[in-house]
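Page 42, continued from yesterday. The earlier attempt failed because a stray header line got pasted into the input along with the sequence. Redoing it now with the clean sequence only.
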Amino acid sequence: MKQEKQDRRSQRTRHLVHAALMELLLEKRYEAITVRDILDHAEIGSSTFYAHYFDKEDVLTDVIEQMLEQLFPAMAQTTVEQGMLPSLALFRHIQEHSQHSHFRALVRGHAEERVWEVLQTKLSSIIEQTLASDDAEKKAPSVPREVVAAYLSGAFLNLLTWWITSEMPYSAERMDEIFQQLALPGVWITLKGKRE
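This time it went through. Structure tokens are written below.
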């Protein structure tokens, strides 16, 4: 019972800190935000904050990881169906959550560069894992997996960034078609030798 109460307190504190950071990111650049700003917005003491986090970077990382946890279970289920990158699932998820304040703060706010770095790392990892499992029974591709993964994740995120900053002029389905047309033909040609 005591552990459950502590867990609820911990969750409440994390929620307050996350919300405070998101509000601040809509107001000013990430670099200008201090731990004191977060404490004031969350209305918590420094000892409570430091019981959960090391610094503001730790808070941002926690927020991004929480966002990715919500995003990637759905992606993992569609990876098999969509090939090496579940682009349609990602476009749909972004479209569905685009009005959520946390999303706006992370993607359109002043922490977007850090968010894209983490997202690219995660996407590259998923692509590499998919290629590695595909390579198990076939010859290795002429281009190293990590290069293919970096290319595809970068191309996808650049297109996604354009779509978001352009206020999503096309549906998620249309954006997926565009991505498939632009990015994948060269990749499949490169990988074709191992697929035969």
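Notes: The CA atoms of residues 31 and 110 lie 8 Å apart.
Reminder to self: strip header lines before submitting.
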